Amino acid sequence: MSHHIVELKDVFYSYPDGTEALKGISFRVIHGESVGLVGTNGAGKTTLLLNLNGHLIPTRGEISIGEVPLSKGTRQEIRRKVGFVFQRPDDQLFMPIVYEDVAFGPINLGLSMEKVDERVNDALEMVGCLHLKNRPPHRLSEGQKRSVAIATVMAMKPDILVMDEPGSNLDPKSRRQLINLLKGFKHTKIIASHDLDMILDVCERCIIIKDGKIVADGSSEELLLNETLLEENNLELPLSRQYLYVKRPF
């Protein structure tokens, strides 16, 4: 399905203060791929994600979603295809009750209220939060907020799901629920995270980024278990693969 394909060709991005955050990024993601994006703080992960759905526009280079090249004129069309989940749920939830937050996108698509109601209920049920639809977002736990933020995107029925640090501030149970939810989303996923265990669980492919450049692109198992590669990029082995050595008294 060509409309699920993401392609970047020699993408650069500089902020207004002159900071060059992306320096020649090129990769292609095909339909159904789950791709993890890893790197230290300041590597360029969030900037890259924000370029994928038009929140930012490349300074130089090309981004295409399906057959649509990203530009100021096409960014609204791109956003219908690419669902973006922000790192902080509070950046995504701004209505008085959960139902209205999840309904916001479908209403702006011009859907009938019957269709809007169907999408809201389906999206909330998908993330296990249908019982929260009449609750104020600020009264929810972090895990519940995260799930509802995902529902706001799912209600738009995106072809591609882009997520920035989806597992941050989640307790172990909420984190596992999120992982299971992501595994059930069969379309294209691009996920930036410091949680390398989550990337191993959810993404078969991994891209390591450092100083705005791609330094490795390949199998998640291959890259995230390569201790030398990780150390060179100021990363550590996933916690599940680390061994703890405890000195015993003689």
Give an account of the 3D structure.
There is one protein chain. This protein has 9 helices and 10 strands. The strands form 2 sheets. Strands 6-7-8-3-9-10 form a 6-stranded mixed β-sheet, sandwiched between helices. The protein has a 4-stranded antiparallel β-sheet with strand order 2-1-4-5, with helices on one face. The protein is globular and about 50 Å long. The protein has one domain (2-235): 3-Layer(aba) Sandwich (Rossmann fold). Helices cover 34% and strands 24% of the residues. With 250 residues, the protein is of the alpha/beta class. α3 packs parallel to α5 and α4 (113-126) packs across α5. The model is unreliable at 244-250 (pLDDT under 50).
Strand order within the widest beta sheet: 6-7-8-3-9-10
User: Rg from C-alpha positions?
Assistant: 19 Å
Structural category is: alpha/beta
Low-pLDDT runs:
244-250
What's the CATH class label? Alpha Beta
Order of helices and strands: EEEHEEHEHHHEHEHEEHH
Biggest beta-sheet profile: 6 strands, mixed
**What is the CATH architecture annotation?**
3-Layer(aba) Sandwich
The shape is: globular
Distance between the termini: 63 Å
Number of helices: 9
β-strand number:
10
Strand content: 15-25%
Mean of all residue-level pLDDT scores: 91
Helicity, as a percent range: 25-40%
**Number of domains in the coordinates?**
1
**CATH fold-level name:** Rossmann fold
Query: What is the CATH homologous superfamily assignment?
Result: P-loop containing nucleotide triphosphate hydrolases
